[in-house]
Amino acid sequence: MAKVCIENLRKQFGASVAVSDFTLDIAEGELVTFLGPSGCGKTTTLRMIAGFIAPTSGRILIGDTDVTRLPVHKRDTGMVFQRYALFPHMTVAENVAFGLEMHKVPRAERDGKIRRVLDMVRMTELRDRYPRQLSGGQQQRVAIARALAIEPKVFLLDEPLSNLDAKLRVEVREEIRALQQRLGLTTIFVTHDQEEALAIADRMAIMNDGIVQQVGSPDTLYERPANLFVADFLGKMNVFKGRGNAHSVFETAAGQRIAAADGAQATHLGVRPERVRLQAQPAGANALAGVVESSLYLGSVLEVRVRLDGGDRLVSQIVNGGERSAAPAPGERVYACFEPADCVAFTQ
Amino acid sequence: MQTSSQNGRGSRWLGAGLAFPASLVVLIIIMVPILQLARYSFNHFDPAELMQTAFTFENYAKFFGDPYYRDIFLTTLWIAALCTVLALVLGFPVAYFLARTQSRYKSLFVILLVFPLMVGNVVRAAGWMVALGNAGVVNAVLQGLGLIDKPVALMYTPAAVVIGTTAVVMPYLILTLQSVLEGMDLSVEEAARNVGASFFTTFRRIVLPIAAPGVAAGTMLVFILCMNAYATPVLLGGSGLTMMAPALYDQITKASNWPFGAALAVVLVCGTLVIALISNWLIHRRYVKTMAS
User: Fold this and answer.
1) Closest chain A residue to the Cα of B291, Cα to Cα
2) Are A181 and A244 in the same domain?
3) Chain A residues near residue B288 by CB distance under 8 angstroms
4) What is the DSSP string of A46-106?
5) How many domains does chain A have?
6) d(Cα A295, Cα A300) in Å, to the nearest integer?
7) What is the pLDDT of residues B136-155, one digit of tens each?
8) Which domains does chain B have, with CATH numbers?
């Protein structure tokens, strides 16, 4: 395994910029997810690291080697593709063996290595099956085994779970994470699913329009999003437009005053829906009076929309605790209460 | 389960019933002339009386007994094989390029490829006559370059027929191969390169085996077209080279020997069919059995 350094990477297709000024150091054994909406440049970046796309400018280093100009087959990356991409004319074992043969691993050693990686992904029994005889989850396991058999310096995954159904997605995701930690794999995992990204990442890089918006641990990104895009993309966020002052008070455009921990220069103030409690009586630093507009039943949580007296709207998420926490009915008067420390200030 | 299987059987019968009239028409249109021809091939030919209804193998005996006609068949076979191989070798890279290119001119390339198909074989052969003649473009260029002193006879040689026929069938092959290659998941090739295979190794070990059944089908189509070529061999081969289709046409129109012409036609059809079946079987044994879904 090796560290990966990406320096000022840029890719232009004609006049359109797919990735610009991408700089990121990934430590040995670290799992970094690239997260963003489709077209944000995350897959393009991954494909530049694998060597399928030549960058317009910038450098990629794997270990201490500059691989920017190296062809795909000499980069020693192990990639897992969205649609599995198994060799349809080869058995499971032959799929895994192909990379070993290309790397000139002596025939005598191949069998042992094949057995080891297939054991890792629990596919040993199906080693003589053809890809078409396997389920989606099994195919993706074989693809993982094929990528890892060559003992790559970096493990690359391009939306590897998006073709699996919801339950399997969580299962394979956990397997990938466990495998990655056990083997200490330097891993880049591209996804557009925020829950997936949060669940397995050591660090995440959130991208939009070809630009990295923020890099950090999942909790940093969730608790302290650097800008409105990150705040909105990762989870949900109530955002008020307005102006902060030096006394830690934020006044919304509609005139609502909110006590915030910081943000003298703020133009926007955000608070996560699950940090907003709805109470019959005011309590705490922020207790904004309003009327319930609607309430949405989402299973494990209830989502209640409140129209504040000043005109601002706000969403509160309440954990569904059965009868003890029945959501207030539409039309009911409530106080939306939250702590100043839970407010995030943005300056635009 | 029982009801659903009954439904399945019911809709199968319904489907067969609906397809039956059209299938019947097609069957009649295609099979009746061939069967009639096959029947003619057993008739007797009398130079004075022309065709007489009979049941004799004399026409086949004549074909297999006369080295002249046997040679025509063998010539047809090797010309067709050569043209097919040439078209495959030259066409595969073009098809691969067309299938994988991201160029915005891709549709223009495809139109250029289809364009010759809009012009009849006869006209295209006429074009080759101009190009390959003693005063043609090819000789002029070779002379201009000082490679030859006097014009080389290209017309009415096997070379002219091979060039002309290959050019005729190439677009069909390229278009077939292109659609086969486009149907292949690009990430499979990428996966091969990712685990250490070079471009050419990927082509040989991954692309070729996966594309084999489609390539075989396209190649077979082209081989059949070559076996049955008429206009190109007549115009470019002249009397220097005779292939099966011109030979049987001569029998029917010039010699008025319908029975023998019909026998030649049956030999051509059956010969082509046997070769097609054998190679299909070989390809299946080599590639398809692991790929079938």
Assistant:
1) A89
2) no
3) none
4) HHHHHTSS--SEEEEEETTEE-TTS-GGGS-EEEE-TT----TTS-HHHHHHHHHHHTT--
5) 2
6) 14
7) 888 889 888 888 888 888 88
8) 67-291 (1.10.3720.10)
